[in-house]
Amino acid sequence: MQALETTTLRVSEIFFSLQGETSRVGLPTVFVRLTGCPLRCGYCDTAYAFTGGESISITMILEQVAQHQASYVTVTGGEPLAQKSCLVLLKALCDAGYSVSLETSGALDLFKVDSRVCKVMDIKTPGSGEVDKNLWSNLNYLTRQDEIKFVLTDEADYQWACEIMQAKQLNALCPILFSPVYASLEPATLAAWILRDKLPVRMQIQMHKLLWGEGPGR
After folding, report:
1. Which domain holds residue 203?
2. Measured on CA atoms in the order 92, 94, 99, 102, is the torsion positive or negative?
3. Cross-strand bridge partners of residue 25
4. Both ends of the chain: CA-CA distance in Å?
5. Quick check: bond before 26 cis, omega within 30?
6. Domain with 12 in it: what CATH number?
7. What are 116-167's pLDDT values in tens digits?
């Protein structure tokens, strides 16, 4: 086991906010945003986390998280699993008693992620420009506590997501989230499609953007 005081991660930001997505929406949450991502989605809203950041030990990360006195922690990016020591951080947060979620593109192997972590896996649609990066074997590592997210740019993405859901029987794995790209696909339009087709999915809007707009610390 790696020593937490000497194991470091490059961190873009640590901040306290309301969870804006997933089934945990609205819950006060500490976000640990790690630096770096191997993908370049056309609608990415966290490109500032691709580079830079500060090298911080996991012990220091835990100390900063504890200052906010929250029960929930989300590890995000970028793509947090691009840094191998993210696995150590996830375990350490679980060991510390937090309810931990991981926001991941699904392009990197989930096999070694601590079983206590809620994995929110983003399946990349054609509209993202990164559909070829989907690592479909990751579906084998999802349980009912996890969630699959489709970020949709248009109706073509919506139809593609519906086909993937059916072909891979995703509802048998875990809850499914449909999210419209902010300022691109009208939420009401997506809602109408979901109701028309009676899809067994949860529609979500990025609540944090409705409250505070885009940018770091959101």
Report:
1. 8-212
2. positive
3. none
4. 33
5. no
6. 3.20.20.70
7. 999 999 999 999 999 999 999 999 999 999 999 999 999 999 999 999 999 9
